[in-house]
Write a structure and sequence with these properties.
13 strands, 5-stranded mixed beta sheet, 18 helices, alpha/beta, about 20% strand
Length: about 500
């Protein structure tokens, strides 16, 4: 069966759209690119000293996203995944910018963490390389951040994202594309200060092969090889020769340089200074070009989500083991919470996704018990919001944090976030399931049903069952009082 998937990579320097045809045979799955679009946006250049994105940069982004949106017209929502990286992570006005960006593209945009970006970059690179049991080091110098990953086969072993990129360093050390020796010295010192934090660990783990992905590495490989500065790939000696040419001419517009595309000239000196710092600090001897990148990793991740190999399921399972979660209790809560979901939220937009978020929240709602029984839901919410959770976007982690924070205790702690009605109802499903499963014992079936009518919630419970469970009846009375704070009326109706 053939199908199309689309990945949108919203980087700090360039925006990219990749459309691929997925060919599924009996024993294999292959991805074939059918269309690619790339536009230079220089989004990170629009960040001021207060990390506020200026309107000019926003307008450049909106214009590109509108064009991408036209190409993606009529693509099913589940076949498109747009991920945003460092500039979206750090911009203080992203809450205002993001809805405009999503409206222009026509699809949701996920702001991913640096760790998640690193994981997807590694996946994209190694999927495009021949299979090997060798340990591989992958570096991705982006516009606003640089990712460092060491892995074996398809599994990353260590990952780190550092806040340095070719656009941000151009702005700081090579303004207007002017290259000076002092600029190089300052840029390399700044980069080495960042890298020294990870240097000892990465050199200790070690690698057999090194690969650079995305624009900076590609531009360096092409320029070094075609200009005769390196026989193969990136070397420190070759970069030293390139650096001398750039300083002598005061810019990347040097006639003796070959293979350098016009759209990379302005940011090449900054990218070169970062790469030289990486080679010096981590003692890299040679680096080759990795053709895959973030967008390829996104495509493979989408393929996994579509074929029951969702990385998020794997992550939830790892967390359940790491935090010693009672899997049987989680399963009981999940079964009842999803039953409530199916009765009140099954017709919502993106109901399948919402159901999965609720499922993961049920799996992980007792994470905090391994830290402290007192206020454990707050510990859980903190972990959900701040832990490295491969496969989950920042927005998805925020939702898990919200649901697990609200699954017990007072509801007024959630009010400052001004949750949507759907968020409240997801919280309701989880809270009620936890109430009914408080005894932590197997339950074959419960005489309960849940209905909603605007802000009115109706929980029907078998009258005989209520009589036999006075503690639950009392707890439900308290629940009704809590939901009034959130603007809902919860009626407990014996049936």
């Amino acid at each position: 069966m053939d199908q199309l998937l689309a990945a949108v990579d919203l980087g700090s320097n360039s925006f990219r759209l990749s459309i691929a045809r997925i060919v599924q045979n009996d024993n294999s799955v292959q991805i074939y690119a059918t269309d690619r679009l790339k536009e230079t946006v220089r989004l990170a250049a629009g960040l001021n000293a207060d990390r506020v994105l200026d309107e000019d940069a926003i307008q450049r982004a909106i214009a590109v996203l509108s064009r991408f949106g036209e190409r993606l017209e009529n693509f099913p929502a589940g076949r498109v995944r747009a991920v945003a990286t460092n500039t979206f992570r750090v911009a203080r006005n992203v809450a205002d910018f993001l809805p405009r960006a999503e409206a222009a593209l026509g699809y949701p945009i996920e702001v991913i963490s640096g760790q998640e970006e690193a994981r997807l970059v590694y996946s994209g690179v190694v999927h495009e390389l021949p299979p090997s049991s060798k340990q591989r080091f992958v570096v991705d110098i982006g516009g606003g951040s640089t990712e460092f990953i060491i892995g074996r086969e398809l599994e990353p072993l260590i990952m780190k994202s550092l806040a340095m990129g070719c656009v941000s360093y151009t702005k700081s050390f090579f303004p207007d594309g002017k290259v000076t020796e002092e600029g190089f010295v300052l840029a390399e010192i700044a980069a080495r200060k960042e890298i020294e934090i990870i240097s000892r660990q990465y050199r200790h783990v070690g690698w057999d092969e090194a690969f650079g992905s995305s624009g900076t590495a590609k531009a360096l490989v092409a320029t070094l090889e075609e200009s005769g500065f390196s026989e193969k790939g990136i070397t420190l000696d070759g970069m030293q020769k390139l650096k001398k040419v750039l300083i002598r001419h005061g810019s990347a517009h040097a006639p003796e340089l070959r293979g350098l595309k016009l759209d990379r000239m302005e940011v090449l000196p900054a990218g070169l200074s970062i790469m030289m710092a990486i080679f010096s600090e981590l003692q890299v001897k040679q680096m080759f070009q990795g053709d895959g990148a973030l967008r390829v990793g996104v495509l493979y991740d989408m393929l996994g989500r579509d074929s029951s190999h969702d990385k998020r399921d794997e992550t939830a399972g790892v967390f359940m083991k790491r935090y010693h979660i009672d899997s049987r209790q989680a399963a009981r809560v999940k079964k009842q919470a999803l039953a409530f979901f199916d009765s009140i939220l099954a017709d919502e937009t993106a109901a399948d996704d919402l159901r999965r978020y609720l499922s993961w929240a049920c799996d992980l709602h007792e994470t905090g018990l391994s830290i402290s029984q007192n206020n454990y839901h707050k510990h859980t919410a903190y972990v959900m919001a701040n832990a490295d959770m491969p496969g989950f976007s920042e927005a998805e982690q925020e939702l898990l944090s919200f649901l697990t924070l609200g699954h017990q205790g007072k509801l007024d702690k959630l009010l400052p976030e001004k949750p949507s009605r759907v968020k409240w109802l997801l919280t309701l499903c989880l809270r009620l399931a936890v109430v009914f499963m408080r005894r932590r014992q197997p339950v074959t079936s419960l005489p309960v049903s849940l209905e909603t009518d605007d802000q009115k919630l109706m929980l029907r419970v078998g009258s005989k069952w209520l009589e036999d469970h006075p503690l639950t009846r009392y707890t439900l009375t308290l629940e009704a009082a809590e939901w009034k704070k959130a603007g809902f009326t919860l009626d407990i109706i014996p049936s």
